[in-house]
Amino acid sequence: MKHLLYTGWLLITNTWRYIRYFKIFRIDWMLYHFYKLRYSYKQFMAEKKESQRPTHELTYGETPYVTIDAIFKHIPHTEFNTFYDLGCGKGRVVFYVNARYKLKSIGVDVIPTFITVASKIASVKNIKGVQFILKDFLKLDLKRKAIVLVCPTCLDKPTIASLFKRLETLPKDSIVITNSVPIQSNTIECTHTLEEPFSWGRSLVYIHKII
Ligand SMILES: C[S@@+](CC[C@H](N)C(=O)[O-])C[C@H]1O[C@@H](n2cnc3c(N)ncnc32)[C@H](O)[C@@H]1O
Q1: Cβ–Cβ < 8 Å for 182, 190
Q2: Is the CB of 137 under 6 A from ligand 1?
Q3: Which ligand 1 atom sits closest to the C-alpha of 111?
Q4: Into how many domains does the chain fold?
Q5: End-to-end CA distance of the chain
Q6: What is the rounded CA–CA span in Å between residue 135 and residue 98?
Q7: Distance 151 CA to ligand 1 centre (A)
Q8: How far does the centroid of ligand 1 lie from the alpha carbon of residue 137, in Å?
Q9: Does the C-beta of 181 come closer than 6 Å to ligand 1?
Q10: Segments forming the whole domain that contains residue 187
């Protein structure tokens, strides 16, 4: 019951965003239909196994739009051209950040269906400012100054260590947003800590800057 109320409240927070960014409503509708009617848990598990990543690291959850907006209030986003969602899942945040904040938005994930479906929607809806890449984010080159979102909640400690090492290679003044785990590094400074809602409950969010 508590879970239903929480999910209902998250849906309500989307209402004015859907009215203002109707494109986002249509994308969410398409994603809902595809994943409800044409994608099974069995397929998802098979894709997880084929990804060569530990299955538990691919646990699915979403960052609600209300949380993205709360985070972006603390970021000088107009100084940036690019946003990365490392582990973008179905791509909802990528579409939202592109529509709302006008940033070139790039989503990376190891689940092929996530990437294929999001890319197809971008092509059908003729959305030019988004890109979806099928790749292990530990192998991604991060050369552009960017705002980067990553959810390390379910990652093992060695994976988190490799990921944070890779994030250190981002150009100076890039922004990295994590939840649950702050980055400890001599070249990455935590500038804000917030507590925000996620699809699985409330969690701490850390905003960092590359120095
Ligand atoms: C908790 S979901 C986050 C979805 C989305 N970023 C959001 O905030 O709504 C984590 C996603 O990271 C992906 N993932 C986990 N490890 C990965 C890796 N090494 N490379 C690429 N994607 C990965 C999973 O497949 C999953 O879709």
Answers
A1: yes
A2: yes
A3: 25
A4: 1
A5: 45
A6: 20
A7: 7
A8: 9
A9: no
A10: 2-210
> Closest ligand 1 atom to the C-alpha of 149?
6
Query: Atom 17 of ligand 1 has which residue's CA nearest to it?
Result: 87
101 CA to middle of ligand 1, Å? 21
Question: Residue 175 pairs with which residues in a beta bridge?
Answer: 147, 209
Per-residue pLDDT of the chain (211 residues; tens, 9 = 90+): 788 899 899 999 999 999 999 999 999 999 999 999 999 999 999 999 999 999 999 999 999 999 999 999 999 999 999 999 999 999 999 999 999 999 999 999 999 999 999 999 999 999 999 999 999 999 999 999 999 999 999 999 999 999 999 999 999 999 999 999 999 999 999 999 999 999 999 999 999 999 9
Indicate the top mutation candidate among 39, 48, 53, 63 to test ligand 1's pocket, ranked by most ligand atoms within 8 A of CB: 53
Q: Do the Cβ atoms of 51 and 110 come closer than 8 Å?
A: yes
Q: How far apart are CA 94 and CA 129, in angstroms?
A: 10
Confirm if 209 and 173 have CB atoms less than 8 A apart.
yes
Three-state DSSP class for 132?
Answer: strand
| Ligand 1 atom 8, closest CA | 63
Q: Which two tokens stand for residue 32?
A: 């809902």
CB-side exposure of 182: number of CA atoms within 13 Å? 16
Instruction: Give the chain's length.
Output: 211
Write down the residue that tokens 């400012």 correspond to: 129
What CATH number did the domain enclosing 175 receive?
A: 3.40.50.150
Q: Which two tokens stand for residue 127?
A: 């959305």
Q: Which ligand 1 atom sits nearest the alpha carbon of residue 62?
A: 9
